[in-house]
Specification:
213 residues, alpha/beta, 6-stranded parallel β-sheet
């Protein structure tokens, strides 16, 4: 019987090796990547049945990577394996189309179940968070009370790269846009978030999981 094909995305190699060991008996591991941009490219090339990804990764975080993947292939299945226990992250992931949300400390017991659910077209959330997520949906079914939701996908890309220490010129080169466009988006973000300095903008990106620390 053909085993489901899994692509892993995490910038911590110890985590990746642990996940490999956990999944090797039941799944075919077709590749590993360490950042969000590499994940997007590898997914197009390898066409895995399920992607297991971290949220906080260099260059492009997992949630924004998923948003790009969904444009390319609406049926893509991504299970997030993350340290983020705040339900805001779970809501953001589910809104982006995630098939699962598993906390890393729960991985041995829950990751295989989450992948199985994803393969059946179902959604799995770490049980310890399920109640909180459902309550949040009842309180606010249409709008996520999350300042990151006010940013466009392009702005989040630019914010992550700036927060990782790249100059406007380097960000422009990475995204194929002009430095002036980068500066424009930066100004727009600072205006909408009511942030005064570049340092505050970086702190915002770290606080809200846009950039890995």
């Amino acid at each position: 019987m053909k085993r489901p094909r899994i692509l892993l995305a995490d910038d911590h190699r110890m985590v990746t090796e642990g996940v490999k060991s956990l999944l090797a008996a039941e799944f075919e591991l077709v590749g590993t990547v360490e950042d969000g941009r590499a994940l997007v490219e590898a997914s197009k090339l390898l066409r895995p049945d399920v992607i297991v990804a971290d949220i906080s990764m260099p260059h492009l975080n997992g949630i924004d990577a998923l948003a790009q993947l969904k444009k390319e292939n609406p049926r893509v299945r991504v299970v997030f394996l993350t340290m983020h226990q705040d339900t805001v992250y779970a809501r953001r992931a589910l809104d982006a189309g995630a098939s699962g949300y598993v906390l890393k400390h729960s991985a041995p017991a829950e990751l295989v179940m989450a992948i199985g659910a994803a393969l059946k077209g179902e959604t799995f959330i770490t049980p310890s968070l399920t109640g909180e997520v459902l309550q949040a949906l009842k309180r606010d079914p249409k709008k996520v009370k999350d300042p990151v939701a006010s940013l466009t996908p392009r702005q989040r890309e630019i914010l992550q790269l700036l927060a990782e220490g790249r100059s406007a010129k380097e960000v422009a080169a990475a995204l194929g846009i002009s430095p002036r466009t980068v500066e424009f988006h930066k100004y727009q973000m600072m205006e909408s978030l009511q942030i005064q300095t570049s340092a505050e903008l970086t702190h915002f990106a770290i606080k809200h999981g846009i950039v890995a620390i």
